Amino acid sequence: MSIKLWDNYNGDHSLNAPSDFGSLLEISGQEGHLISQLYFDSTWNGSRILYRSAFYDQHTWESWRYLLDSKSDVETSGNLKIGGIGTNYISGNLGIGVSNPSNDQGWGRVLDVAGIHHSKILATSENTLYKVGIFAHNEGWVWWGWICGY
Question: Is the pTM of this model over 0.70?
């Protein structure tokens, strides 16, 4: 087991760090195991912690990734999966397919779903007899029983 710490306040480019100001912590196990690095970014862009890894004695590192914290936006290039137990909530407006949900009517909270040509919002309860849906199509309003769509 090996633990190394570098001070990068001089912009040591041999570290291949994501910024010129911060501290790099490297943790590695036995030969042939994974090497992990944490970078404590001390710049004025949020001072976030980054992570990357590589296999021992190989110099092909993964790209730097930000660790999730409670003060920063969540961005992902993969699937966003949120799970929880108990009461879960999103505080504020929510946009799907749109980065700035429209709330022109001044509602308390808005779910704004924007599709290219067609969009669908389907709300269900545990009783599958009760479903409410709103469908957006280019053809205009469409009714299906208790479901109204545009």
Answer: no
